[in-house]
């Protein structure tokens, strides 16, 4: 008589999983991001059931990095945004993949070589582009509805935290409390759907006058909910935002501010402003 998996203890399931990995099976609970340095730093990739928060100063490129990860992930991905229409997001995806500037893409001012690159990128994206949608004024409820309606996404990207509170709480004294509730609710949603949720956030408490402006957990505000409930917190930092005379154009640090299952540290990336494209410095 077959054994019901639900009757097996969690400890037994863990040991069985270790044995299967030793035998060469792929761990379906881990979702590689497609950025090798990041995957090595976080134990192979994002973990199902985890809440990952990605934050940085205005203009640092959090949305671009989240889109880049969504394009590299092989699993089914849902990207929910409050900041642009799906057409604009797919436009960015096409420009990133084809290495064509957004201005050239929007104006149709592309050379024959770039037109060929766009055609190849469009074909590549047809099969692996994330599903991109916009949520309306219902905030967190819209995110829940999209997660329930989507065909079992492995990764959900939510852009971003600040747009989730709705009604009077969106601007009133209870805003921080609503933001904290949203962080906890998204963690529960990740567990309920057995998926990884990537939440983008600004840094409302970042002091731009301090000597070291690299992101800290305390910069996220929301009554400390990010540090409490997130499994992985990533801070994006580019020195050129503050001092363009240091010869560090494009140099980017992706800092591990919290890692529930591993060590802290940082990953070196490179940002090409021309294509809004992030690259792994050690890739290849």
Element-level helix/strand string? HEHEEHEHHHEHEHEHEEEE
- The overall average pLDDT, rounded, is 88
CATH class: Alpha Beta
What general outline do the C-alpha atoms trace? globular
**What is the domain total for the residues?**
1
Describe the structure.
This protein starts with 9 loop residues before the first helix and ends with a strand. It contains 9 helices and 11 strands. It is globular, with a radius of gyration of 20 Å. It has a single domain (46-280), classed as Rossmann fold. With 284 residues, it is an alpha/beta fold. Helix 3 (62-72) packs across helix 4 (86-98) and helix 4 (86-98) crosses helix 6 (112-128). The longest helix is centred in the middle third of the chain and has 19 residues, at 175-193. The strands form 2 sheets. A 9-stranded mixed sheet has the order 5-4-6-7-3-8-9-10-11, with helices on both faces. A two-stranded antiparallel sheet has the order 1-2. Strand 6, helix 8 and strand 7 form a beta-alpha-beta unit. The mean pLDDT is 88.
Offer a few descriptive terms.
alpha/beta; Rossmann fold; globular
Give the SSE layout.
Blueprint: H1 10-22, E1 30-31, H2 36-41, E2 46-47, E3 51-56, H3 62-72, E4 77-81, H4 86-98, H5 102-107, H6 112-128, E5 131-134, H7 140-149, E6 155-159, H8 175-193, E7 196-201, H9 225-229, E8 232-237, E9 251-259, E10 265-272, E11 277-280
Parallel strand pairs: 3-7, 3-8, 4-5, 4-6, 6-7
Antiparallel strand pairs: 1-2, 8-9, 9-10, 10-11
């Amino acid at each position: 008589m077959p054994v019901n998996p639900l009757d097996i203890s969690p400890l037994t399931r863990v040991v069985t999983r270790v044995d299967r990995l030793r035998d060469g099976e792929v761990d379906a609970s881990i979702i590689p991001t497609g950025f090798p340095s990041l995957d090595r730093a976080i134990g192979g990739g994002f973990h199902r059931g985890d809440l990952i928060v990605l934050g940085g100063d205005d203009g640092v490129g959090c949305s671009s990095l989240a889109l880049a990860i969504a394009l590299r992930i092989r699993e089914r991905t849902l990207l929910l945004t409050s900041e642009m229409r799906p057409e604009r997001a797919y436009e960015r995806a096409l420009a990133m993949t084809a290495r064509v500037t957004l201005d050239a893409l929007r104006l149709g001012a592309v050379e024959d070589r770039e037109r060929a690159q766009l055609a190849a990128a469009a074909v590549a994206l047809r099969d692996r582009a994330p599903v991109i949608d916009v949520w309306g004024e219902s905030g967190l409820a819209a995110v829940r509805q999209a997660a329930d309606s989507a065909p079992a996404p492995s990764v959900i990207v939510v852009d971003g935290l600040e747009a989730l509170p709705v009604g009077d709480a969106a601007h009133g004294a209870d805003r921080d409390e609503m933001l904290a509730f949203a962080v906890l609710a998204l963690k529960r949603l990740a567990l309920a759907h057995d998926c990884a949720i990537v939440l983008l956030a600004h840094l409302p408490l970042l002091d731009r006058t301090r000597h070291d402006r690299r992101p800290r957990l305390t910069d996220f505000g929301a009554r400390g909910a990010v540090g409490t409930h997130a499994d992985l917190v990533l801070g994006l930092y580019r020195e050129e935002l503050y001092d363009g005379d240091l010869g560090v154009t494009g140099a980017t640090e992706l800092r591990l501010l919290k890692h529930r299952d591993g060590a802290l540290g940082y990953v070196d990336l490179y940002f090409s402003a021309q294509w809004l494209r992030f690259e792994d410095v050690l890739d290849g």
